[in-house]
Design goal:
The protein has two helices and three strands, in the order H-E-E-E-H. It is of the alpha+beta class and 89 residues long. The chain has one domain: 2-Layer Sandwich (HIT family, subunit A). The chain has a three-stranded antiparallel beta sheet with strand order 1-2-3, with helices on one face. The protein is globular and about 30 Å long. The chain starts with 5 loop residues before the first helix and ends in a 15-residue tail after the last helix. The model has no long low-confidence stretch (mean pLDDT 79).
Length: 89
């Protein structure tokens, strides 16, 4: 965890994230509080990573499953765009 990372602070409860859409032992998915588009969600690994290259294969596979499952579920009723961006605090 990084003290200066907003995502880590959401994961460890030091700061309140927007509405949680999904959570498991390794991933937190929240609605963005400053959305670029309707339905904008953030998919956050619970371990601090600065880029996708530093994510282990098993975690990347699980991340992909969660993204696909939540996109399909979440896009119902909204005009969602298929866009993935990796950010680091």
């Amino acid at each position: 965890m990084s003290e200066s990372c907003i995502f880590c602070n959401w994961v460890n409860g030091k700061q309140k994230a927007a509405q949680t859409v999904y959570e498991d032992e390794s991933i937190l998915v929240v609605l963005c509080d400053s959305p670029v588009a309707k339905g904008h969600t953030l998919v956050i690994l619970k371990t601090h990573k600065c880029d996708l290259a530093s994510v282990e294969i098993k975690d990347a596979a699980h991340l992909g499953e969660v993204v696909a499952r939540n996109f399909e579920r979440h896009k119902t009723g909204i005009e969602a765009r298929k866009c993935i961006r990796c950010s680091c605090g």
